[in-house]
Design goal:
252 residues, alpha/beta, seven-stranded parallel beta sheet, 8 helices, 45% helix
Length: 252
């Protein structure tokens, strides 16, 4: 699955799944632009880690929750690259809470960050790819939350379900331009954010209870993204690939 000569933009790449995707693409030869939010405490270290793994990378801070931030990111990315062959769209914002008590403004922020951010960045990048005329690969990072109405995650569940349908709609509209658009649905992944939410002990216990006997890793998601962005996946578009270690079958 060589990606030599390819250029990629990965949003939300400072840590967790986004960084895992950036590492996987870089290890296969792609030049990777890593994006994270302005003032990110993680982005510089992530770039160093990607380069230490043998990849070529640079970091770009930008707020991809806004249209203006996405426009700025695309301009600065193209200033450093001749074009973008690959987009891994990984913007997300999640806060848990009971539906009856959930703050309406927080609900809107989660939707904006997860769904609107995905729309803005993908539309702008797709316009570039269409104008360039060389096709391209787009991968949206969704979640099993799109299919499972997990408790205390009303906004995130809705955002990811919307993201799935949006991505499949985009795939249909970009077929004529030979731009592959696919979705990855991670299961329960061992990320810094999950540690902050649940703690190490709960994650270890939860991993043992899963069918595969462990939580997923950012590398698991990165490997799936690298495949979908490779020439080997040329005939795959408009699909949802679940990478969950059997999470969906945990009660079967």
């Amino acid at each position: 699955m060589s990606l030599l000569g390819k250029t990629a933009l990965v949003t939300g790449a400072g840590r967790g799944i986004g960084k895992g995707c950036a590492l996987a693409l870089a290890r296969r030869g792609a030049t990777v632009a890593l994006n994270d939010r302005p003032g990110s405490p993680d982005l510089a270290a992530a770039v160093v880690e990607v380069e230490s793994a043998g990849g070529t990378a640079f970091g770009l801070e930008a707020d991809v929750f806004s249209r203006a931030g996405c426009e700025s990111l695309l301009r600065r990315c193209l200033d450093q690259l001749n074009g973008i062959d690959i987009l891994v769209s990984n913007p997300a914002y999640s806060r848990r809470g009971r539906f009856l008590d959930y703050d309406p403004e927080l609900f809107e922020r989660v939707i904006r960050g997860t769904l609107f951010g995905g729309f803005h960045m993908s539309q702008l990048t797709a316009r570039h790819m269409v104008e360039r005329g060389k096709g391209g690969k787009m991968v949206f990072i969704s979640s099993v939350h799109a299919s499972i109405p997990l408790q205390n995650a009303i906004a995130y569940n809705a955002a990811k379900a919307g993201l799935n349908h949006m991505a499949l709609s985009i795939a249909r509209e970009l077929i004529d331009h030979k731009i592959n658009v696919n979705v990855i649905e991670p299961g329960w992944i061992d990320t810094p954010g999950e540690h902050e939410t649940f703690g190490a002990e709960a994650l270890a216990e939860g991993g043992r209870a899963l069918p595969w006997g462990r939580l997923g890793t950012p590398a698991d998601i990165g490997n799936a993204a690298a495949f979908l962005c490779s020439d080997e996946a040329d005939y795959i578009t408009g699909t949802i690939t679940r990478v969950d270690g059997g999470y969906m079958h945990r009660d079967a």
